[in-house]
Protein: Glutamate/tyrosine decarboxylase-like PLP-dependent enzyme
Amino acid sequence: MNYMDEIQKLFPSQDGNKETRDLLVSKMNQLITEFDKLKNPAKLTLGEMPEYTEDYYNQIISTSNVPEQGITLDETIEEILKLAKGHRYPNSNYLANATPLPNIASILGNLLMVLLNGNNVWDVEGAAAANAEVRITSMLSKIVGYDPNQSAGYTTWGGQGAVFNSLRLAIARQFPEANRTGIPNNLYCFCSELSHYSLYKSVEATGIGTDHLIRIKANRDHSMNLQDLQQKMEEVIQNGGIPVYVLATMGTTDTFGIDHIREIKNITTSLEEKYNLPPIYIHADTAMGGMYTFFNDYDFETNPLQLEEDVCQVLKGYQSLFKDVHLADSMVFDFHKLGQTPYITSLFLIKDKMNLQYVDLDPTETPYVGNRGYGSYHTSYTLECSRMGSAIPIYASLLAFGIKGYQQLLANYIRVNLEFRKKLMQAFPNVAVTNNVSPVTTFRFYPEKVTWEEEVNGKATYEEIEAVNKYNDNFAELIGLHRDMIYFGSTKKQRLVEARNTNTRVPIYAHKFYTVSPYTTVQDVERYIDFLKHFMDIHSKELVLI
Ligand SMILES: *Cc1c(COP(=O)(O)O)cnc(C)c1O
Structure:
């Protein structure tokens, strides 16, 4: 008996025969059919939720062993589908974060990626993804206003990977010898106090040190305060520090605040002139907001998509900020957020490919790839060695949606949020909406009178703010118990405010309504409000009982 016969049956064919293909397709059909049976649009979760007892993971640890004898594909399907039970599904009941429902084109792109199993480190190993990567880099460069002949891009480990990669470029550009000798000990980075923790981690990992990460106050609209930026950068320079990097967040994770990149660029340029400094690197953290560059060329006069006036107002505001994103040295497209593709599909986009020379490896360091006589695309400047071909699902998605398709999707996030804000304010006398109109609405309930204006203007005491925080935290706990029905997000640091009676800045707790499902439409809003009302009634009664 040939043992390899049995093993070969676990693989796709070599010759494209129908029998093996039918097997693969029928098993996929079986998986998707069983998966679909778990779906219920009235619930957030797939099938029954397992009981998350104290020893849930300990039980898994004690019962997990590699089977002596492999099980059948049918049994394998049955086993892996158990993992899906109780999993949240990003349907219209999911309102917590920018978590996508991967679109069909991206799923097919992913499938092709897996079937080819290219390694995107080198085009000889991964010709398809290399080709797709060059395509999407050019496509998206044209959208954001980078010169496609001068720009470069590669898919990497998320928006966070883009921040890390950009910081590495910033250091190497200014201190090319630092790759060999280590970094100077007086480098400083700047970001909004509301920026994502990606930069915090990156200053840790590059050895700059988190003490050298300077956080800039945020304005009422959650954008970085430019005066504070200017002042803090000057202070650093006057004390002998070197400003090496500014992170401009365009779409803060919780509140969608957008930093004014043109003014940031003006500040860095004027400081460079005044103190005779080399160029300070600016990375636009567009992980959340980047997709809205798809409106950069939208004509609001003719309004070809016939978007409503209030939706246009919001998008016009975005356009005025995002059309300047090309001023950044680099940026990112996190398609697995508002672009509706599977994790991880992030393109790190660099304005000037010459910057990559500072981090590229010498060919003698890369004996495995690229230095043979064939293949002209090898990415020895990435931090990854092997790289998945996630440019393929992004490419598929861009083709299937087109600019207009993405515009419709992105406009609907705004439309639904406008409706939600209106209905929320009508339904609750004790609520404040605490951010600008965007794909996310943050809001905060009050036990009695709404005191948001006092809080945000430094007129509330620490104790008063904390009491409202607690009230909202309790409510988040209460509705969180019913997250198998509808799942709202929450944040414990929507922003920081001054308290009247202390010198510390106090974080604000808020609830989040993040609408990223294509199935979330204005018709759903009533349902969300009813859910909140139902539990607010219970919540306020419980408080009375206490
Ligand atoms: C989500 C997010 C990140 C991190 O992106 P990942 O793709 O999760 O790594 C970075 N910055 C901002 C502003 C984000 O919203």
